[in-house]
Amino acid sequence: MLIKGLYPHLGVTIYNRQTAQKFRKVDRHIGPQMKSVGEVMGIGRCFEEALQKAVRMLDIGKLGLVCNAKEYEPEKLETIKDVFARPTDQRLFMIIKALKQGISIEEIYKLSGVDPFFLHKIQNVIKMQDKLSTIKQTDSDFLDIIREAKRIGFSDKQIAICRGMDEFVIRKLRKEANIVPTIKQIDTLAAEWPAKTNYLYLTYGGEENDVDFSSGSKKVIVLGAGVFRIGSSVEFDWCGVNTIWALKKNGIEEAIMVNYNPETVSTDYDMSDKLYFEELTIERILDIYDKEKPVGVIASVGGQIPNNLALKLSTAGVNLLGTSGASIDQAEDRTKFSSLLDNLDIPQPEWRDLSTTRDLKKFAQKVGYPVLIRPSYVLSGSAMRVAYNEDELKDYLKLTAKVSR
Asked: Which of 18, 44, 359, 372 is at 20 to 30 A from 294, Cα to Cα?
């Protein structure tokens, strides 16, 4: 993890390692060799906000530092000490487990070498999770707690999990209380001269927007590819950049890119009229959509992450340009795509969409091993495995379920 100071902004870059999902017998320990397959950068007004953004950007199923699956499962002290002494890509989440299990910041510092400054910041997030889970909606400081939670990077979904509510209920509640993000412009000149850049980000640590939205320009938002991973990378960035160019050639006054990978062409300063260095999540795209009021959003050129958002955005009232959310869903959902092949008389291997281990075993025994396991709404072979016997089938199902239920 690399911390970059961008006065008065803070950028957190995390190098992404998704090899374990696709390759067996991978050594997850971090050493002098480069094992990253990409990187993300979250930008905010405080460390907690930037770090929680960056964790969500990794696209590994994490909602942030907290409110994730299995975070409450206790870990053996020997395992914690081993991960701190011989770090893996899971060390950040092991720090959170250690703090939740009552291990002191001083002890974690001795074991891991992570500066106490950062450990205290991570602990702030854990304390806020506890507040959100216990405060009553009728309490006088309820909205102040929500506002502070947003300031330190909690998503609507995280707050919803703490409250036992739906994330869109939280969104409606905070918007009614005028708890909304502001748009900030990254100052590339350290305030020595007036900076005019198109690098933008959203934060709950600001008072007013740095950008005027009253121009009435014809705008289109393009959703980028997000984090790179083994099996897919620059091809989606090529698609996004060419979409931006095509929009400019066809009379769109503001072609807006939303992406968060600092190593891509689409995040170069001269590629788009506006670049939102931001998360590709339903919450954040709707925030930008509310501010910009574009003609529409293009979600079909950025690969898997925008594809997964398309139907949700369409349902939320966003005008999708190009491939519709329903069409993307039909191609991504194995059952719907299979029905389409049947309707078109296109042959396909025998398969089933199954959700219980018993049914899976029955099907595998019927067709015979080996069998191919693959979840819907994934790209590049994430959690795709060939099982040659029942024991392998059980092991691979655990991995597949982590990627996609």
From this structure: 44
